[in-house]
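Data availability (excerpt). The following record was deposited with the supplementary files.
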Amino acid sequence: MTSAKPSPAHPGGTQAIQRALGLLLALSEHDELTITQLAGQTGLTAGTTSRMAKALAAEGMIRRNPVTDAYHLGARTALLGQAAQRVLGLDKALPAMRELARQTKESVNLSIREGPESVVLLRVQSTLPLRFEQTIGARFPLYSTASGKVILAFGEAPEGYLQALPERLDPVAPGTLATRGQLIQQLEEIRGRGYAVDVEENVEGVRCVGAPVLDESGHAHAAIVLQAPAVRMRRDRVAALGPLVIDTAAEVSHVVPDDTSLSH
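Predicted structure:
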């Protein structure tokens, strides 16, 4: 998980904005957090955190649970999220994702890159009882996910990220690639076939197929990923699903603008 700590201090009102955003980002990654937990997440003092939380609660951005005395996101953040989906064109991506989920009976994600991580932005959940539960906002290393690898393979100038990786990659799951060299080799293979595969590299028992959402210059700014339990995602099925995921990603590329990235 990335830290929700705010940027270094800024003068005047800008600092307050940074602190408020830090609290909102911390709560976006947890169901609830107490003032003490929020202070730990953001690096603020408990007193400052308490004042910021009360101000945000007064505006309906967050809400205090009277039973646990912890805070969670408020209704106004849901309205902001819906507005952002509409403005960014993400609501237009959902029909294509739902159709892919209907055809395959598996879960479908739209993920983007934020720094060294892949972040789930939209999700259509499988209706089958055996499925991997995942939340919007979940984030994982680029090198261990189908979404991250396909964004790297088709992204603009991935060399900086690759050079910063250690030669031995930190294992995330049993199937995680062992070395940076293996990742670089896989990226070449991904460019050749048009989609990436995650064979229990990020979550044990889960396999994924991901295709790039490309901009007009041919660079990936997002990815469509099909996700299924390994028992239903055999190698022959991966080969059959690859073209379906590519087609869906191409359809989404027509409705999702290039600035969907959360990077800042």
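Summary of structural features: The domain at 12-79 is CATH 1.10.10.10 (Arc Repressor Mutant, subunit A).
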